[in-house]
Structures are given as C-alpha cells and as structure tokens.
C-alpha cells in the first residue's frame, strides 16, 4: 500500500487529502469523517480497503487536523463549507479512477454531509456508519438532558467565549471552528435538524437512487437507532438497508460511536462491507 498527500484549494480554503493507492484497483472510495475527527483516525480502515482493491481518499475538513492553517479563531468554515469540501473530494475520487465505480462512506456528521454534495448523486453506493440526526429529543432519559444542555448551553457558551469550540471532554474530537460549532448546535436544537436552515442551502438526499447501507450500534451513545433511522430515511429514493447491531453480533465487546474504525475491531470490517459488496468488495 502506498499513500500520497495532496492539497485541494477551493474558495479561499485549502484542505489536505490522503490517497491510499491499490495494486489492483476496482473501485474508488471517499471516506467522510465525523466532526472534529482527524483523517488519521481512519487510516487503518482505509489501508484495509486499499488491500481489498479500492483507491481510498481521506481528508480533513478546513480548520481540522492537517487542514488547520494558523489560528482556529480565523477559520470561518461552517458545516456547509465542509459539505462543499466533501463534494470536491468526491470529484477527486472520480478523477483518480474514471473507469471505476465511486462510493462514499460517511461516519457520523460525514454521513450527514453526503446529502449536501451534488456529486454524491454520481456515486453508486453509500455506506453510513453511525450517521444520525443530532436533534436532542432522539435521546432518552439522562442522555436527553445531556444533549439538551450540550446544544442549548454548553456549545454556544464555550464557542462565544473562546471564539471556537473547545472540545475538552470529547477525547475523540478536535476543537471546532466557531461557525461550524454554532451551526451544528442550531441544527441539534431543531426537530427538523438541518431543514431549519431552509434559506441558505440545497440538499440532494431525496435524489440519490443508488444503494445505501446504514449501520448503527446498540452501544452507541451518540447515535441512537431512531436518530440514525431519521437520517437514512431522508434518502427516500435509494435502495436502503438498515443494519442495527449489538457488538456481540459482530464478535466484538464494544463498538460505540467511534470503535468501528479501530484496529481492534478489524474483524467487523468484512462482516459489514462484504454484506454490501458480496463475495468481493469490488464485485
């Protein structure tokens, strides 16, 4: 497996992209990460996919990881800017393998942003891993109270006071640009989620007509099943399969919101991916 790093420039922003080459490629896969999760977190999974015959592209959203240039306070990116970046990376995936099928895998927020990418309509298949609506009422009991506090108070207060969102207490994510954090909080306060921003964007969820597999896990505190169901149901024209697993069904002790991509859970990867790509991932 060989990797190559590129810088993509668009509308005054620059993002860092990593390309995982394959010796005998049969498809191209773009991996859209979760909010504030650096692309290196997905490296083991991308490496495995490349050994299955896929050219894999990972990237950091502007203001995150290797795509952060200078002070985070100076980054103006919001979630729709990140969707534009995903759109550009999907085009790169097509350019890298023009004769192959193009697919996209979205983790958490990355799975949400796919629906804002017009180029996602040119993809043959989509895999959603723990991708959900963040609307706080999708949770129950004390978790609902925690989500209410997070989106109505904690995220806005921290972001306005610091000029960015400090992710202290969230061990898996980086600090977030202010506009992205505040827009995310706004969506999560509204039962229609991103539709509350009805005047400033176009989305393509209902136009995707390919195959989608939506995967969620019973031990995921950040993506309960009704929240993942809400998001996948937005793809009303797709051929949709929903898979909701207890970790034991996948021969794992714990998966949660982030564990699917960890090397300790690599036995899970073929169980999920080969159910979507029968016999051989490129077949």
Automatic annotation (TrEMBL):
Q: Where are the transmembrane segments?
A: 147-165
Q: Which GO terms describe its molecular function?
A: hydrolase activity
InterPro entries registered for this protein in UniProt: AB_hydrolase_fold, Hydrolase_4, UCP037442_abhydr
Q: Does the keyword Ribonucleoprotein apply?
A: no
Keyword set, alphabetical order: Hydrolase, Membrane, Transmembrane, Transmembrane helix
Q: Which residue intervals define the domain Serine aminopeptidase S33 in the entry?
A: 41-148
Superkingdom of origin: Bacteria
Q: What is this protein called?
A: Putative alpha/beta hydrolase
Highest classification ranks of the organism: Bacteria, Pseudomonadati, Bacteroidota, Chitinophagia, Chitinophagales
């Amino acid at each position: 497996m060989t990797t190559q790093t590129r810088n993509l420039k668009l509308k005054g922003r620059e993002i860092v992209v990593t390309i995982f080459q394959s010796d005998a490629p049969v498809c191209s896969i773009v991996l859209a990460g979760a909010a504030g999760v650096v692309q290196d977190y997905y490296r083991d999974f991308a490496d495995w996919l490349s050994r299955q015959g896929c050219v894999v592209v990972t990237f950091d959203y502007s203001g995150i990881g290797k795509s952060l240039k200078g002070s985070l306070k100076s980054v103006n990116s919001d979630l729709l800017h990140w969707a534009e970046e995903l759109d550009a990376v999907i085009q790169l995936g097509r350019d890298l393998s023009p004769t192959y099928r193009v697919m996209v895998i979205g983790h958490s927020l990355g799975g949400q942003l796919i629906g804002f990418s017009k180029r996602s309509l040119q993809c043959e298949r989509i895999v959603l891993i723990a991708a959900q609506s963040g609307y706080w009422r999708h949770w129950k009991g004390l978790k609902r109270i925690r989500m209410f506090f997070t989106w109505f108070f904690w995220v806005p207060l921290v972001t306005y006071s610091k000029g960015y969102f400090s992710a202290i207490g969230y061990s898996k994510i980086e600090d977030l640009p202010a506009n992205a954090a505040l827009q995310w909080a706004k969506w999560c306060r509204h039962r229609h989620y991103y539709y509350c921003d009805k005047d400033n964007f176009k989305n393509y969820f209902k136009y995707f007509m390919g195959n989608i597999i939506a995967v969620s896990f019973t031990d995921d505190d950040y993506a309960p099943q009704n929240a993942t169901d809400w998001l996948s149901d937005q793809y009303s024209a797709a051929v949709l399969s929903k898979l909701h697993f207890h970790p034991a069904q996948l021969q794992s002790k714990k998966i949660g919101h982030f564990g699917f991509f960890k090397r300790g859970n690599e036995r899970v990867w073929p169980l999920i991916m080969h159910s979507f790509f029968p016999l051989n991932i490129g077949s």
